[in-house]
Specification:
- The chain is an alpha/beta fold and about 600 residues long.
- It has two domains: about 325 residues, ABC transporter type 1, transmembrane domain (ABC transporter transmembrane region fold); about 240 residues, Rossmann fold.
- About 60% of the residues lie in helices and about 10% in strands.
- It has a six-stranded mixed β-sheet, sandwiched between helices.
- Helix 5 runs antiparallel to helix 8 and helix 6 runs antiparallel to helix 7.
- It is elongated, with a radius of gyration of 35 Å.
- It starts with 15 loop residues before the first helix and ends with a helix.
- The N terminus is likely disordered.
């Protein structure tokens, strides 16, 4: 890792104050299942009492009966049965305590993932444009799982608090002097816990950041596998992944080192020192008076009960620290304000005609760099408006603000005379149909991909929509027709077939406005004829805004807008623009020359 690079925010330690704040907020995810945790705490308290009683049974047997030299068989069986009964009760409460706590944690995990997934679908497109998909997946899977694991510390902490309190009480009632001497170790233990929390938070934040990078690399490599193979980029991708993986390995090694030194080994050391102190002080007392064997046994057992929960708690600190870091990353998503543009919805507003008006619209993605500058045009109901221009001219940005994926800074967009901000989002999504350059197909069937899992759309409507765009011709030839399976991204279907399905998907909701984002850009010439036929059908009677890649496809448009650097530099019909010998004329000329050269080759 380059040491000259500025430190990431994720590479800094999380202060105790911030950790407490994170924990308090994370507790809200467990609130609906609080009774699982309450009963678990109660059972933990009962267990700690049982752990006091069991050594007392053995102590009484040793000092009051076995030390006499002759113990009746019935007394032996009585104490054996009593101890066995105590262990049986302990096992029942241990099971109940662990079961209730783990079930509460699992329900909390399900609640967290559901809420996080729901939050992601309220975020605006800006968030997804700026955040790698691998990082988002990492937070939904790895981070939520790590966040769940850290609840194990609360279970260990609850048991430890009860065990420490009851064990120290039992030791104090057995021998006050030795108990007070053992308290000398507590400041050192508290210092180690504090130091571990401070140092390990840095390690775990780095580890989580590197894991997100690793997932992002994986997602990129899998999604772009065809391009990687086409351009023989396997070696470069492997090298990049190897470097990212090695960096993640380094953070894992650092985590192992800190855990190996500061967790259970240090507690075991203090336990051993405690045993030395106890045996030493009882040994010194034995030089001057009699020390009962049962008392030594009970005291050592209480000491073991005192330190054992601390060992488990320290081992859980790694999961806890990992969970705090993961929880902070989850909360960053929950607190993200990159929401969809706000609508002041008027339920009485509906899209009935499909008239679109842009009035002096200005837009910027970051609020600083202008992308759209004073965009104004009108699309009358049933008209087709084509947007053309070089890459970065503002075509897609015009669509983004019309679809309300992004908020525009100034100006006004009207649909049927109503401000687009007042139109209910459901009405916008229903009455505006979007056909993308690369249609996305979901796991399922052809039928489910046309109706988009909306059971209100009947099978007959699905078939009518497919027939309307001429998609039924290839669907009827499939083995299972409309019930034919669709695998990931619809890989078993051609680009043309997927595009026709997307047309059917759009037309089945009967939208008033149609938006085409370079819908035939990736289609071969032969397939394009079929696509164009279906496209012409779905445009009938609908207002259409089309981003054109092939200028030959929009020559019949009612209005062509030529954009350059976010401005409309020319407007008119195909014939009008050609007569101007301007931007559009040059674009047609260049495209024809490129096509002619392609034909000659």
């Amino acid at each position: 890792m380059d040491k000259t690079q500025p430190k990431s925010a994720w590479s800094r330690s999380i202060s105790v104050k911030d950790q407490v704040h994170i924990i308090r907020r994370l507790l809200t995810f467990a609130a609906p299942y609080k009774w699982y945790f309450y009963f678990s705490i109660i059972f933990a308290g009962i267990l700690s009492v049982i752990n006091i009683i069991l050594p007392k049974i053995i102590q009484t047997y040793l000092d009051s009966h076995l030390s006499k030299g002759s113990t009746p068989l019935n007394i032996m069986w009585y104490f054996a049965g009593l101890y066995f009964f105590g262990m049986l009760v302990k096992a029942i409460f241990q099971f109940s305590q662990s079961y209730l706590y783990e079930m509460g944690a699992e329900y909390m995990l399900e609640n967290t993932r559901r809420r996080l997934f729901g939050k992601l679908h309220t975020l605006g497109m800006r968030y997804f444009d700026q955040t790698p998909s691998g990082s988002i997946v990492s937070r939904l899977t790895n981070d939520t799982m790590a966040f769940t694991n850290f609840w194990a510390l609360f279970s260990s902490l609850t048991i430890a608090i009860f065990a420490i309190a009851t064990s120290f009480f039992a030791m104090y009632t057995t021998d006050k002097k030795i108990s007070l001497w053992l308290l000398l170790f507590m400041p050192f233990l508290l210092f180690i816990i504090w130091y571990y929390q401070k140092y390990s938070s840095v390690v775990y934040r780095r580890m989580r950041e590197r894991l997100s990078e690793l997932n992002a690399k994986l997602a990129e490599a899998i999604t772009g596998i065809s391009v990687i193979k086409q351009f023989r980029q396997e070696k470069r991708i492997n090298n990049e992944f190897g470097k990212t993986n090695d960096t993640y390995l380094d953070t894992r090694k650092a985590m192992i080192r800190v855990n190996s030194l500061l967790l259970s080994p240090i507690i075991d050391l203090f336990y051993a020192l405690g045993v030395v102190v106890v045996l030493g002080m009882f040994g010194l007392a034995g030089l001057h008076s009699y020390v009962a064997a049962g008392v030594i046994y009970a005291f050592i057992t209480y000491l073991d009960n005192f330190y054992n929960p601390l060992t488990r708690m320290m081992d859980s600190l790694s999961d806890f620290q990992d969970g705090v870091v993961a929880g902070s990353r989850i909360l960053r998503i929950m607190d993200d304000k990159t929401l969809n543009p706000k609508q002041t919805e008027n339920p009485d507003v509906h899209i009935t005609q499909g008239k679109i008006e842009f009035k002096h619209v200005n837009f910027s993605y970051d609020g600083k760099t202008p992308i759209l500058k004073d965009i104004s045009f009108t699309a009358e109901p049933g008209q087709t408006i084509a947007l053309v221009g070089e890459t970065g001219s503002g075509k897609t940005s015009t669509i983004n603000v019309l679809m309300r994926f992004y908020e525009f800074q100034s100006g006004q967009i009207l649909i049927d005379g109503n401000d687009i901000r007042e139109i209910p989002e459901k009405e916008l999504r229903t009455k505006i149909g979007l056909v993308l350059q690369e249609p996305f197909m979901f796991y399922g069937t052809v039928k489910s991909n046309i109706r988009m899992f909306n059971e209100k759309i009947s099978d007959d409507q699905v078939k009518q929509a497919a027939k309307f765009v001429d998609a039924d011709q290839f669907i009827e030839e499939l083995p299972d027709k409309y019930d034919s399976k669709v695998i990931e991204r619809g890989e078993s279907y051609s680009s043309g077939q997927k595009q026709l399905i997307s047309y059917a998907r759009t037309i089945v909701t009967n939208p008033k406005i149609l938006i085409l984002d370079e819908a035939t850009a990736n289609i071969d010439t032969e397939t394009e004829q079929i696509i164009q036929k279906g496209l012409a059908k779905i445009q009938e009677g609908r207002t259409t805004i089309a981003i054109a890649h092939r200028l030959s496809t929009i020559q019949n448009a009612d209005l062509i807008l030529v954009l350059s650097q976010g401005r409309i530099v020319e407007r008119g019909t195909n014939d009008e623009l050609l007569k101007k010998h301007g931007y559009y004329y040059d674009m047609i000329k260049m495209q024809n020359a490129a096509h002619q050269e392609e034909m000659e080759n």
